[in-house]
Amino acid sequence: NAGVTQTPKFRILKIGQSMTLQCTQDMNHNYMYWYRQDPGMGLKLIYYSVGAGITDKGEVPNGYNVSRSTTEDFPLRLELAAPSQTSVYFCASTRPGDETSGANVLTFGAGSRLTVL
Amino acid sequence: GQNIDQPTEMTATEGAIVQINCTYQTSGFNGLFWYQQHAGEAPTFLSYNVLDGLEEKGRFSSFLSRSKGYSYLLLKELQMKDSASYLCAVFNDYKLSFGAGTTVTVRA
Fold first, then answer.
1. CA A30 to CA B74: how far, in whole Å?
2. pLDDT tens over chain A, length 117 residues
C-alpha cells in the first residue's frame, strides 16, 4: 500500500517553462488536494477535487491547472513558471464520511520541491 | 473566508508540558485538525475534534470550543523528537484550511 505518491521530488525550472507534478493514490479516496508551502508558512490550497471529472479552485489557483480523469490520479500543471511559484508542493487525499471511521483525515504525499530560476 | 491564528514559535524543556493555542474564524466548520510537520517532511495527522471537549491520544491531547472558535494542542512529557511545526487546520466544505503553524523547539 503506497498511499500518496508524488513525482518528481525535486525539480529546477527556468522562467517560462512548463511542467506537470504527478500525484497518484491507491487508497480509493474520492477527495484529492494540491497545496503549496512557502518557507516558514502554512499550507495554501491550490486546487481540489471531490471525484473524477470534478475540480475546483482553492485559495491560490493562479498559474496552475489540474485535471482528474481517474480516481487515482490528480496531476498539477504549471504552464508558464514564475519565480513566485518556487515552493514545496504537497498532494493529499482523503475519503468523506463519519469521522469516527477515520474519514476526512488527509494523507499527504512526501512533497515536490520546485525551484524556478 | 478563513482566518486561523496560532503562535509562531514556542520553546520548552524536555519532560515539560507545552500548550499550543489556535483561534479560528471561518465561514463554516466540520472539524478541527492538528498535524505535526518535521522539517523537510510532509505533515502527519495528530488529532481531530468535531465536538466540544478534550480528545486524548497518549502524550497528546486536543481541546475544542466551537462557541469560542478556540482549540489547543497539549503536548506532555516533551521529548526531543517533538521538536517540529504544529499545524492547526479547519475542515469545511470538503477543504482543509491551515494556520501558519507553530514551531516548537524542545531543549535538553
1. 32
2. 689 999 999 999 999 999 999 999 999 999 999 999 998 888 999 999 999 999 999 999 999 999 999 999 999 999 899 999 999 999 999 987 755 556 688 999 999 999 999
| Closest by Cβ to B42, choosing from A48, A99, A111 | A111
Q: Is B98 close to A43, i.e. CB distance below 8 A?
A: yes
Name every residue in A having a CB less than 8 A away from some CB of B. 31, 33, 35, 40-45, 48, 50, 58-59, 90, 92, 96, 99, 104-111
How, if at all, do strands A112-116 and B84-92 pair?
Answer: unpaired
Asked whether the beta carbons of residue A41 and residue B87 sit closer than 8 angstroms, the reply is no
For B16, the enclosing helix (H) or strand (E) is none
B52 is written with which cell numbers? 466540544
Q: Are B17 and B9 in contact (CB under 8 A)?
A: no
